[in-house]
Design a protein that fits this description.
The complex is a heterodimer. Chain A is mostly helical. The longest helix of chain A has 23 residues, at 26-48. Chain A has helices at 2-6, 14-22, 26-48, 51-68, 79-101, 124-137, 141-152, 157-164, 168-186. Chain A has 9 helices and no strands. Chain B is mainly α. Among the domains of chain B are: 9-46, no CATH class; 86-119, no CATH class. Chain B has 6 helices and no strands. The radius of gyration of chain B is 41 Å and the shape is rod-shaped. Chain B starts with 8 loop residues before the first helix and ends with a helix. The chains are: A mainly alpha, B mainly alpha. Chains A and B meet through helix 3, helix 4, helix 6 and helix 9 of A and helix 1 and helix 2 of B.
Chain lengths: 198, 119
Amino acid sequence: MMWMFRSSLGSRSDGELLALYAHGDSAAAKELSRRLLPALMGLGVRMLGDATEAEDVVQETMLRLWRMAPDWQDGQAKVSTWAYRVAMNLCTDRLRKRRHLSGGTLDDAPEPMDDAPGAEARLQDGARHDALQNALAALPERQRQAVVLRHLEGLSNPEIAVIMDIGVEAVESLSARGRRSLKQALEGRRAELGYEHG
Amino acid sequence: MNMADKGDDHHDLEAMFAAARQRPVDVPNDLMARVLADADRIAAMRRPAPLWQQVRDALGGWPAVGGLVAASVAGVWIGVAPPSALPDPAELFFGTQTSSVSDTLSDGFFDMAAILEES
């Protein structure tokens, strides 16, 4: 273990950093947080459509990571995969709670981001991003998870299968159906989003 | 004709995905601070307490330690200079007259004084 202390933290794997943290190295916790937080925050925002809720999910995910650090067995799984899985489950819990509170009438979609008057005046890339976010929010939960993890987080299908606890074929199916639904949801906005040129 | 039938729909969606991936994710400073504070708190809970702290806790905290010290001091004091009302424990045990520590000390002092006077 001591050899790890002589090397810079930046070259350590996530699992090694977690082991260092478990042995009392707070700098390792900082480096690991620096690596994981942007991805987890992105996942939370894309799944929930709300930055504040996403922050809560990220903090809870990292808290669970710190707690289980002494029990982590490096080599069995990737720390990032574990964190994605926890964060995804927390997002799902919040979406279900949100749906329950709304009486199931709002599906699990967050507030629309781009339907306010004057939205046309926004920068086009911002409008496209918001349109995509709204279309994602309207997808069924599992399709949204698969699309976000595959196309926005850039994870591989086998990794997504671990996170979602399903087979790789199921991931491919969910992702494909999600993409089809997105296309259908966005086709009416092609001109508005600058994708039709005559 | 819907979007899925258009030849460039795949490109459009991929472009939106790519733009979303490149969009910077804002991680608030206070979120990072809260996460690191949690890490420190969990690490502190896991860290074993110093030996003296473990002994103190095993005895029942500071009041118990204070009582134990007071009782120990009293016991030593009673052993060195037992009250006259109490019988000498050594005499009770061995059945013989023994000199107390104070007597021994007094004899030693007399011997030392005599040596110094002669020199």
